[in-house]
Amino acid sequence: MAANNQPLAATGSVLNGTATITLADGRALGVPWRPGQSYTFTGNTDTGPGTGRGQVSADGRFFVFVVTDALGKSFGLIGGDPTLAANLPRTGVAAHVVNNVITPGGLPFANDSVANDAALKAAASTSKLLSVYSERLGPGAIPGVPADQRAVSMQATVSIAGTGATQKSYHGVFLGTYFNDSTNGSVANAGAHSATFRLGGDQLVGRNTSSQSTMDTGAGNAIYGPTGEYMVHVPERIDNNVVGNVATATRTPQAAFHQPYNDLSGSAYYTITASVKDATPTVGTRTTQTLFGYSGGVVEVRDNTGVFSTRLIQTKGQSAEGVRIQTDATTNRALARIQIGNWTTPGAETNPTAIFELGSTADTHVSTSAFIDDRTYAMRDQVADNLPRSRVTPDTGQAEINIGSRTFLSSYNTASVDSLFTNAGVTACTCEFLTWGWWSGDIRYDNAGFRQGERDRLNLATYVAGKLSIAAQIPNMGSATYTGHMVGNVVNGANSYVQAGSFSHTWNFATQTGTLALGFDGRNFTGTSSAVNASGGRDFTGSFTSPAVGADVRSGSLAGSFFSSPTDAVKGQAGSFNITNNHNSYKAGGIFAGQRESNPPAQ
Predict the structure, then answer these.
(1) Pairing mode, if any, of strands 554-565 and 454-468?
(2) How does pLDDT run across 198-213, given as a tens digit for each residue?
(3) Same structural domain for residues 90 and 214?
(4) For position 351, which CATH number holds?
């Protein structure tokens, strides 16, 4: 607990690879000193043999050790040159390499059973902890600095290990904000970590969640080095309450929470995450813009009796503006609004519409988003009372009902998993004019009027967005072929997994019809498409089928739109798809994205 944290003696010694660190009460502890490494070790404590994990920076100016004694009790030693509040950067960007100190080499912020899973570790794409700095670390007017600008940070890990029935997967996102910590006069970085995972094709979606903040050292926050080169995060919560121009921080020590879907009581765990600054990253274009698009995936349902089932995010519940991604280069923040019709089991008498509100670009001080560049960003559900909440309309004309949504998303580029495409023999669309990524989380229905007592979970569902083509600029003659990829969730019998596929769509602009050639999960599909009349030729729907394999026949539908690039009015296509079979034992849902390589058709 933060109340137990005490400063170490200001000096120590290193001799023959052993550092002697002196505690505030005069006791001394010897630990192995290996600069530039993260490692485990054994030794003796006051209560007998103990084990330890350590990390020392290459320059020896920062260290973190965690020692567990024979009784199972742990204590930590963290030290370095504290970063003065005035010396934390106020402009620019930074990248820190993250390390799970409790489980060296494990997935950051995750509980041990997930963090130390060999397959997940081997396949993991772990981004650096990326920061965009700002002059604004508290309330009050600052000349030339927008009131809603924040100094933000983010980190994402995505792992898709294996294929089909043996696949394991993980999606985790940390979001934080730098601000003045009124409790000790230093600067803190605080926010939250959210994750979902599946530890086997036949396993349910699990969840990790925690508040995260730089550790209270007893004299400040665990941010070290001349300009914030080192940080240590632990599962503590800091509420930064602002009244007028005064901010008051309240720190609450907590544990992280591991919640399997079949054991909602879950269990507590503790993390220590060390971050070491790396070379300054190259940042791409940062654009203040609003993009629109589609979402797709499979929802894992838990009813109020504990029975599990799955359902598709249906293409017939999609519209070209069902996903809205808004990025703001002046505030370093982003938001997403995901609206999905038919948020229920196919064939139900009602037609509920769900709206999920993630991130923010204004007002709140809660760490819900970070915008690094146009292809690197992350968000989580809005939680403050003064912001729109995620909600559902049970049926047409009925009142909205708030839902307990704890979802999050990250762009594919933040932590790319190219093995997903190579394993499927698919070439991913470069599609630089589009953005797409992963959407995961837990949705709880507590209120009467809609599925009270039930839950939904998403694990690596998908979204895609871009600049929708302007109907008046769409050609009315000629044809073109758009090629790219499909990515989606699959339920195949008792197994669930993530899969990639190929997309090809030849479109006749004169007749506003097309032919489809798709490859997904070991099957080839062909079909036809046509424009949606009310869209002026911008939007289209299609259907497709594959040859039977034995008695199994798979067929599907898609809904999509044309998207523009800065130089081409109809450069690409993107949308959502569904696939089912004739035995109700197979379902797949996700997004597709494609681009035209040839010259644009004549207008």
Answers:
(1) antiparallel
(2) 999 999 999 999 999 9
(3) yes
(4) 2.40.160.90
